Every structure is written in C-alpha cells, then in structure tokens.
Amino acid sequence: MGERSSRADPPDPNDLLPPPEPVHLLDPDGTLHEDPDHPVDLDDDQLRLLYRHMVVTRRVDREAINLQRQGQLGVYASLLGQEAAQVGGAFALAEQDWVFPSYRELGAAVTRGVDTGKLLHLFRGTWLSDHDPYEHQFALYAIPIGTQALHATGFAMGARLDDNPIVTMAYFGDGATSEGDPHEAMTFAGVFKAPVVFFVQNNQWAISVPLDRQTAAPTLAHKAVGYGMPGYHCDGNDVLATYAVTRRAVERARSGEGPAFIEALTYRMEAHTTSDDPTRYRTKEEEEEAGKTDPIARYRRFLTNEGLLDDDVEEQVEAEAKAEATRMRDEIYEAPHGDPMELFEHVYVDDTGHFERQKVQLAAELAAAGEVEG
Amino acid sequence: MGERSSRADPPDPNDLLPPPEPVHLLDPDGTLHEDPDHPVDLDDDQLRLLYRHMVVTRRVDREAINLQRQGQLGVYASLLGQEAAQVGGAFALAEQDWVFPSYRELGAAVTRGVDTGKLLHLFRGTWLSDHDPYEHQFALYAIPIGTQALHATGFAMGARLDDNPIVTMAYFGDGATSEGDPHEAMTFAGVFKAPVVFFVQNNQWAISVPLDRQTAAPTLAHKAVGYGMPGYHCDGNDVLATYAVTRRAVERARSGEGPAFIEALTYRMEAHTTSDDPTRYRTKEEEEEAGKTDPIARYRRFLTNEGLLDDDVEEQVEAEAKAEATRMRDEIYEAPHGDPMELFEHVYVDDTGHFERQKVQLAAELAAAGEVEG
Amino acid sequence: MSTTTLAQAINRGLHDAMGADDRVLMFGEDVGALGGVFRVTDRLQEAYGSDRVYDTPLAESGILGTAIGLAMYGMRPVCEMQFDGFAYPAFEQFTSHLAKMRNRSRGRVTLPVTVRIPFGGGIGAVEHHSESPETYWAHTAGLKVVSPATVADGYAMTRAAIAADDPIVVLEPKRRYWMKDDVDLPVTTEPLHKAVVRRPGDDVTVVAYGPMVRTAMEAAAAGEDEGWSLEVIDLRSLSPIDTDTLVASVQKTGRMIVVHEAAQTLGIGSEIAARVQQEAFYHLEAPILRATGFDTPYPPAMLESFFLPDVDRILDRVEESLSY
Amino acid sequence: MSTTTLAQAINRGLHDAMGADDRVLMFGEDVGALGGVFRVTDRLQEAYGSDRVYDTPLAESGILGTAIGLAMYGMRPVCEMQFDGFAYPAFEQFTSHLAKMRNRSRGRVTLPVTVRIPFGGGIGAVEHHSESPETYWAHTAGLKVVSPATVADGYAMTRAAIAADDPIVVLEPKRRYWMKDDVDLPVTTEPLHKAVVRRPGDDVTVVAYGPMVRTAMEAAAAGEDEGWSLEVIDLRSLSPIDTDTLVASVQKTGRMIVVHEAAQTLGIGSEIAARVQQEAFYHLEAPILRATGFDTPYPPAMLESFFLPDVDRILDRVEESLSY
Ligand SMILES: Cc1ncc(C[n+]2csc(CCOP(=O)(O)OP(=O)(O)O)c2C)c(N)n1
Ligand SMILES: Cc1ncc(C[n+]2csc(CCOP(=O)(O)OP(=O)(O)O)c2C)c(N)n1
Ligand SMILES: [Mg+2]
Ligand SMILES: [Mg+2]
C-alpha cells in the first residue's frame, strides 16, 4: 500500500498547475497579442458589448457612491477598477448559467442584465436584497465571506445529476480564499466533478489586509492542484484575456471535465466600502500606480485601434450608462419605506401561527405610533 | 497591477511540489536504499528503539482491542498497520517539540513516552482524557476532525514569538484534509512561517469513505503548494523513510524556514473503531493485499540483515511490550469509577458560585441513591 | 402488527420519501455503503443508487452548503450530520444561510432542506457523541426543529419534514434507535409542529421531547405508586413550540416540570417556563421546574448517568412542585 | 474628569492590559494598521508592534483555533470577531474546544482567551452586522459571556476579562461605541460577573444589558411622567447570570421586564424568567414579561427601528405588568 500512489488514476499535476505568467492579451496601449490557446471568439457587436457593460458598470458604480454620500445608501462597496475582471468573466457564461456573487459584483450583474436598482436595495436597507435570482440566474449577494462558493458547487452538482448543461460561477475575493468554505467547496467540486468555475478577483486587498497576509502560495492559482482542478490566472484588467480564460474553463466544465479555478489579477481602486479609510493602510502612490492600468481606458484604445469605436457608438454607450444610472437612482430614491409587518412574511413558507402574538404586538405598536404622529 | 504578480517575492512552486514518487528507503525484504537527500542519521540503539516503539505500540494496541471486547473500553480506534508512520514521524521530534494528535495516535504517544493507560482512559470513559499534555508535550486527543491542526499552528506561532526553538507536529488523517480547519491552519502557518509540520497519515479510509471521495488531487502532498509550504510524501509503512522525511521537515521548521506538509502513505488494517464493520465497504482481498506490506515485519528483516536484532534484543523488546500492555490493562481495570461531583470541578478556574444549586442537587441525588443501595 | 425499531422506522421513512419524489437526495458521511454509523440509511444506496444516496467528503459545512445549492437548483436534500457534536462546523451555513435565505430573498428562494442529526446521550460514547445542541437551532429564526420520540413518529415526522418546504432540523434520539414498537408502516401521526399528550394526568404536567419522553413516561408510571397523576406531553416540535397545548395542560394541573438532557441554562425548558408562567400566570400553583442536564460539558461515559435526567430526578421535581 | 467614548475606553483597556502583561496579544481581521473597523484597536500596533498586534488571514476558525494554541503555549490571546454575524465560522472551536478543553483536561489545560465581538443593531448596517447571538455562547457550558454598558465598564470589564483565566466572550454594544461619559481612566468597577442596579425603583424591575441598558434608563426616566418607579438592572454578565441580584430586586418590586435585542425565543430573557419565577414565586405580582426583538432574522436597516426594543416597547410591558 505504502508504495502505490493513493489513488487509482491520479491526474497529472502539470495539467493543473498555472502557467508561469498570467494570460495577457491586451497591452496598456491597446495592442492585441493573439494567443491560439485563448482565442477571442467574439464578433464586433460582442466586442462593443463588453465595452458597453464596463462603461455602464462604472457609471452605475459612481452613481451608487454619490447616493451613499447623499445618504440614500447606508454603505456601498465599489468595484472601481475591477470592471474588466467581472464583465470579462460573466460574459463567458451562457444564458442558463448561474452566477453566485459576493457583495461587489455590480459588473457581473450588469453583464447578466440584472436590474441594478433592485440589486442595490440591500445597501439602502429597503430589504435584505431585492432582485429575483431566477430571473437572470444571478444569486443573492453573499456577505459572509466565501460561503456562496458552496452554494455554487451544490447547484452545479444538482445540474449535473439532471444532465442539465448549466455551469455555475462563484465569484469571491483573495481574502475569501483563506476561509474554510471555499476550501470545502473546491474539495466537493473536484470530487464530484461539478461544473463550477471558482472565479477569484485578486484585487490585492481584503479591507486593510494585503494578499501576503492571506497566503504564502506562489499565486492563488496554485491552490487548484490541491483539489485536482486546473488553476488559471489572467490579467484581470484585460477584459479579453479574462473572457478567453474564463470561456475555456466554462466550456470545459460544461463538457463534463469538471471544475476550474481562475485567479484574475486586478486592483480595488476605491476604498473597501464607503465606510472605509484606505489612507490608514495603503499609499496614494500605490493607488496611482494601480490606476495606470485602468481596464476601460485600455480596452477603449483597443476598440479605437480596431475601428470599432466611433462617436456614435460612444454616444450610444454613454446614453445607456446614463439611463441605467438614472433608473437605478430613481429606483433607490423612490423606494418605499417598506411595511414593518413584512418582517414576519417571508421567514417561513408556513409559520404555523408562531408569529401571531408578535404580529399583534407590532401592529399595536404601529397603531400607537400612528396616533402620536397623526 | 494586472501584469505584476500578486506578491512581492513569491516562492518557486518547484521547491514546494512533491517529488513524483513517495520517498521509500526500505524494500519489503528489508533492503535499504540509501538516499543522500534523506539520510538516516541514527545509531544502532536508535534504530533498535524505533523497532521497540513499533512493537510496544502494536502490543498495547492489541491489548486495547481485547479490553474493548471484554467491555473494559467503550470503543477503541486501532492504529494497526500505521505503526511505522506514527513512530517514524514522532521519532523525528526533539524533546521540547509538541505533538497534536487525533484519536488514533498510540504510536506517537508511545514514542513520546506517554503513559498509555492514562492515554486510553478516554475510551473507557473514566474521564474525557487523563494524561498531562505538559508532561511529554503531547496534547489531548482531538476527536473533532482536523481541529487540532489550528492548535498546533497557534502553539508554534507562540513559540516563534518567544524565539523558543519548539516545533509542533499536527497529526491528522486523509479524511481530515477535507475539513475547513486544516485549510485555515495551513493558511496561517504559511503566512506566519510557523514552525509546524502537518503530518497526514493517508490510511486510505475515513471510516467507510475511500480517499477518492476526499479529494481529486494528484496526491495529498500537492495541497502544500497552495499554502506556500513544501509538500513531501513518503512510504508510511517504511519507518526509516518516514523518519528521514519528517526529520528534514522538522529541522527545516526549527531553523525558521516555515511549515511543511507530509503525506505518509499507509493503510488502516483494522476496522475504523471497534464499533465499525468494514465488510460493508471494503473487500478481504484489499485488506490482505495491504497486509503484505506490514511495517514491522519489513523493519525486522532490515534489522536482522544488519545484525542489529538478536534473540536477546527480541526478548527484551517483547518484555517491554508485555510490561507496557500489562501496565495499561491494570490502569484501565483498576480505574476508579470516578466522583460524580467532579462534573463541576474543572469547567472553570473560577465558577463564581454558579454551580452551587446544581451541586446541592446532585449531592442530594447521590445521598438518596446511597440510602437505597445501603 | 409488526415490530419495528425507531431506526428502522426512520430508515423506512427515508426510503418511502425517496420513492415518492425523485428530487429527494440523501447524503452525508458514511451514509452510503455503510448505511450510516447507526444503519439509519441502510440499503438506501442499493435502492436508489449512488447519485441520490452518496457519501460526501469529510466536511460538514460542505455538506450543508452544497445542500443549500442543491435546494436552490430544485432538489430536496436530506443530509446527515453524523453526530450532534459534529454539526458545529456547519454552523455558519445553518444560521447565515439555511435559516435566512428565504427571508433575505423576500420569499423568492425556498430551501426545502432536511438535516438529520442523531442527538443526545446515554450510549456510553466518547466525547462529542452525546450532546444536545437543540437550543442553537431553536433560537435561530428561520429554522424549524423537531424530534421524534416514538417509532411511529420516527416514520411520520421524517416524511413530514422532508415533505415540508421549510428547512427543518430533525433531532433523532440516538439512544432510542433500538426502541421497539408495534406499528404498521406507512403511518401518519399528528401534525409536525403539534405537541401531543402521551399520558393524561391531573396533578403535574411533565413536558419532554426526544429521548426523555420515554423517561417521563416511566416517571409517570412510578409516580402512580406515590399517588401522583402525571400528565406527560411529548413536545415533538422544539421550534416552533406548541405553547397552546402546554398552557391547556397547566391550566388543568397547575404544575409543570420540563425535562431535557441539554444543559439547564437556556435549554428549551427556559423558554417553556418563560411562556407558560406568562400565559398561565393565575393557574400556576407552583413555579415551573426543570429536570435537566447540568450546566457542564457532557461528562465521560462512566459518569453520564449522574448527568442525565432519570425517573428519580423527574420525581424529585414533581415532589418539589407539589410541595408548593 | 475627562470625556471618553466607550470605544476609547475599551481601546485604553486593551492598551493598558498589553502594557501590564507582555503575554497579551491582540489579533483578528483589520485590527492592525486600520485599528479595527470601529477603531477600537486604534494605535495598538503602533504601541506594541506587529508581533503582538497583528492582522490575520480572513478565517475566523483560524483566529480562534490559533488563539487556543497560543494560550496552550502560554500567551494570553485577545482576539476579535469583526462582527457578531461573522463569529459563526468559529463555532466549532468555541463549543468543542474553547469551552471544553479545561474540563476535558481535568484542569491541566487552562485557556485564558478573550474574544471581543461588537454586537447588536441600531447602526443601519447591512445584513449580518447587527446580530445578537449571545444565547449561542451563554448556553455553552465552559464559556463566560459579559457585555459592558457604560464607558467605565468598557475599560474595567475589558481589563477584568483579559486578567481572568477562563475563556470569556466580551460582547461590545457597537451602537454605543460613540457614547460619551466623564470618567478618569484607569477605573475599576464591580466584579465582572455581578449585576448592578443602575437606577433604584419600587414598582417594576427592568433588566437589560449591553446596548439596551441606556434604553432602559430612558424608559425609566419616561416612566416617571406616568408615575412609575422603575428599577433598572444592568446584567453585565450573561454567563454566569447573577440571579441573586435579580431575585432581590423582584422581591421588592414584584414585577420584572427583561429587555434584549435578540430574538425572544430562547433569548437571555427566557432563562431569567425561568429562574426568577422559580426563586421568587411568591413575590411575583405579575408574570415576568419580555421586551425583545422578534423571532425573525434581523431586518433591513430601514425597518430595524420596528424590530428593536425601544422606550415605548419597554413601557408597554411595564404597563402590562402593572395591569396584573
Ligand atoms: C465570514 C466573514 N468574516 C468577515 C467579514 C467582514 N468582511 C467583509 S469584506 C471583508 C474582506 C473581503 O476581502 P476579499 O475576499 O478579498 O474581497 P474584496 O472585499 O476584496 O472584494 C471582510 C473581512 C465577512 N463579511 N464575513
Ligand atoms: C467534525 C467531525 N465530523 C465527523 C466526525 C466523525 N468521524 C470520526 S473519525 C472520522 C473519519 C476520519 O478519517 P481520517 O481523517 O482519514 O482519519 P482516520 O480515522 O482514518 O485515522 C469521522 C467522519 C468527527 N469526529 N468530527
Ligand atoms: Mg480582495
Ligand atoms: Mg484515514
């Protein structure tokens, strides 16, 4: 026993280890380096759509920050700088595929067509979340770090049992890789060959904690071999590289070859949330340095070089961005205050009368308060 | 940002990945293959001591199984077949080093000099455990799977803060590698360069669940690179290979180079515990096949070939084995029934009187029962 | 009538539930080929195949977290936590997701997950295998918690829990797995969240659940010799608690004892006492008393009999109650 | 006298504890350079260096599990769970090891670990940042649980918890972090596990802890206009509970209201009601009533004011109590 390897047909580690360098297709000046292993199988409209999603995302993101400043949102977690990673990743999914996001996935939501106004209600506190996950196969934002990785894995296991060609994608951060749940999720996914892609946005920070406090690994992508799945990494500020790498992983999973892990290298340009103060833990220089690789500017140069971006298109995209941002703002501004009695409404499918006394109490409190006011 | 690697000076993965084949020094016929990378720096007495520990361990183990059959132990988890892995691993530790065992580490305990009678009290239920961890730097048996890996890591972090040259070793099983705690332990150990060695006995089974239900990884040793620590593997039924590999990892940790992960390939020859029924999930053939690589038989051949094992030594070792087994049996048989009032004694250093009412109640119950009997 | 053990009844309940709905899955540690460490899932894999009955990696958060994902997909997962003391690694998935997802989603996401957990002591086990953690789940809004105490309920409550659309923790009284009764299966019993009077009486109400129901019945029988007429209520549902049945009983007896193995402080007995003293204030002739485990960790096997409530401890409380 | 906030008082308590004993370590997520999301650990790293005050990887079980190992080695770890809703991943280490190791080892292994957790609602936060999980720890034998409600206790209880050799969970009322008071630090207050009468009164006893003490005091003030004399007790220690102080008070008033943000079912109020109705049975003129959160998940920010107990809810219960 001792001699023989511990498993029947172990995979070859070399098929699972990441390449020495992250996949990178677009230079900062917008020049595209073709890579046969990572073809960009997109037509002109799709290439423009990527741009559209990134611009809309950034615009809605900025609007959300404003809304928080205006006191309309309690807090907000900006994805500024991560547009390419999120849009490039989500764009690789098919309509029926599912996204299991953390709380910073505005770009993935926009790509999926989720109503950003409904999505952001949870930051206003109208309700704990308010979009329908089944409308665009976009799960609820998950705030407990890394927990959604297990939901994505279970969902994928269910689809596989049903021979349903669905792939799920779990978004989480560099910090999340330290938690037990993503570890267990990747363990299950590997063992059950679940069609799930673990998409890590390595934005270098977990609130104030830098990556080297999360792991001593050469790269996050080197974690994959420990679960028997391939680990890929890409320049997460390069939307085409991110798309191509994710596309490959997604179709591989769909074809039954099992899960994959992707590390998209990017940077959190904004504070962790609007409540955070980055000056306490990182330098302006670092932020400026990171700003130089702005994912949208780079992609705009590419589209322009390719002659895919004329003023009409720019105007059109600008208009769509403005429209979506306005729609979101109006949704938030016009959000009803909510009915306190709803506290009891969704807890159970059948509350078997358990809430009666407490409902009566709250109703009485509301009535009394009403009298005072009125 | 996207371009540059996510960490300042990432380690070279090739320094962390396990060699293609597990380290193996002793053939089944006892022939030794020297390996410059894994020197066996042991004198004749130490070589005999390894044998002594394995024989004593097996003997005490068998005695424990008998005691369970005789109703003296409620349950027992045998390590039959894993003697070389446990003894070889523990033998590589220095006196001041600490062992953080699971519940199957009799061989490690014997090597450390722990009183096996006291150790096994927890299987009798005299108390929840009854040896003094500070006497031989051997922590309490940990039953919740994998949890002790974090204690070993924290302890090592403390020693490092103190510049105290202690190395800790966490023993756990192949099944435990699926839990979140060992993942978090290895994450912390890598980040803080804690002097801890994660020693996994891959005995192929987690109760009824085979290794391929725990991971799709090429080998368990391939998990190490994901934490930035070297992953080693060895023939866990080869006590010299296990010793040499562990020795290297331990001294490396002591010298400040950080943690390491060791996969010792072995086999659980007995049932999971005396309550288990392996016929439900594995074949006699598999067990017989595994039995052929008995670690003690192999090492005895080696010692005999080397002329290190004459009848006197065999007798001496047999006597020590018998003595320890007898000591253990007597300790268990003569174990006092225990004082029920002890339930309240150790919960807190200072119970601030919280238990008064409940103590009075139990005392009264005991008095009443006494009257009935007497 | 055929004689069945509690374990067999639950096994049959799982079997029939899987036969009735092919979206029902059963998984956990050692539930497949081994049939569970208590054989409660015996032969289910044989009957329904390893796609629907499967062993998982050794990771409880993984078990519950994937159950949630499977439920979101449309399955009806039944998962097992091998022992009470080993459900804790899944605690975050229990409290932050299983309990809250439906409310969070405004009713859009429903999680029909059943979590089976053998619980309680009295089997002479090593540490972590004899705990009574019901408070952790019963205090968590969004979960439901039930515990069968009879062979018939072993079958019927298992079926009802799996059929229900809310997440339900089923606490199986492991020390009663081998308890026999004559019941023809399938059988249906009272609604899942109703308490049941197992033995009517006039003097003192004794409330118990799971493993302690049988002990309470034995105490009631023994109480007869003392001339005490005890009414025994099997709580069955620990969340929600059927307060009305408890109040109705105490309005008759004026006295109540709550029995459980769990530590006294913040055990189910505390909530029952708080509710009943409020709703039946003028009917109480004595304070509500508790016959429970102590506020200590569960003891080693050789001392567990001193920790666990037994007939004597229950009757001591009855006597104390009657002394008011 | 100098004006200090609760957050500053706790920060000073941590600072002085580290100065007094160099085995005291402080770690958790973002407690270093950032000084904690609430700045409670502000400047500690500057003062004591990054060996003794450090950020950990994002893993709560890792934080608590390594704290246990550090304590076994001989350190006195103080670790932070960033928010109430994020302590759950560490639950197994809490219940199976932190709480039980000393008992398991027959007193040979002592774990002087302090776990700081900002808890409770009222700050308009997103989900998981406003929970009151005290029952989970208070029900767990082997742990102690305390919660400071005043600026002075913020300092003194922090010092006392760190100085104590038992594992202690300190629940810091996050919505009161900015509450000011004139106190000269260092200060010592009543023993860690004693309840304190914050305001004497004759008609009804109001028991509160952590964030609700201030609300209870406001209710008592408002109650005066109604001609009600309320006695306000600051529980301070949720485990163990100082029953004697509660009983003494109710023997005087005959009436008691327990206030907490946590869900009512199996909240601390249930245990207090169960004990007091037993020990002061003949003194009670009304049932013990509870002014608490509802048995629902914590609501979204815009609805939290309807969930949280406030002056009106407390006075409603007072009035109800007086109506008996
Ligand atoms: C279980 C848990 N612990 C702690 C937190 C508090 N918290 C919120 S975000 C965050 C950092 C997450 O970092 P990362 O995973 O890199 O994602 P990012 O915020 O960078 O997108 C922390 C510690 C949480 N939400 N959940
Ligand atoms: C957290 C937890 N879950 C489940 C169990 C029940 N259990 C005891 S041993 C075991 C299998 C452990 O397998 P492995 O880690 O390979 O160690 P081995 O028993 O083979 O030495 C299981 C599932 C446990 N003790 N703790
Ligand atoms: Mg990050
Ligand atoms: Mg094993």
Could you walk me through the main structural features you see in this protein, from its secondary elements to its overall organization?
Chain A is an alpha/beta fold. Chain A contains 13 helices and seven strands. Chain A has helices at 13-16, 44-69, 83-91, 106-112, 116-124, 133-136, 148-161, 180-191, 239-257, 284-291, 295-305, 311-333, 356-373, and strands at 98-100, 168-173, 196-202, 205-206, 209-210, 231-235, 260-265. In chain A, the strands form two sheets. In chain A, strands 1-2-3-7-6 form a five-stranded parallel β-sheet, sandwiched between helices. Chain A has a two-stranded antiparallel ribbon with strand order 4-5. In chain A, helix 9 links the parallel strand 6 (231-235) and strand 7. In chain A, helix 3 (83-91) packs parallel to helix 4. Chain A is globular and about 70 Å long. Chain C has 324 residues and is of the alpha/beta class. Chain C contains twelve helices and 14 strands. In chain C, helix 10 (268-279) links the parallel strand 13 and strand 14. In chain C, helix 1 (6-20) runs parallel beside helix 7 (151-163), helix 3 packs parallel to helix 4 and helix 8 packs across helix 12. The longest helix of chain C is centred in the first third of the chain and has 15 residues, at 6-20. Chain C is globular. Chains A and D meet through helix 5 and helix 13 of A and helix 11 and helix 12 of D. One thiamine diphosphate sits between chains B (104, 143-145, 172-176, 203, 205-207, 268, 272) and C (29, 58, 82, 86, 89). One thiamine diphosphate (TPP) sits between chains A (104, 143-145, 172-176, 203, 205-207, 268, 272) and D (29, 58, 82, 86, 89).
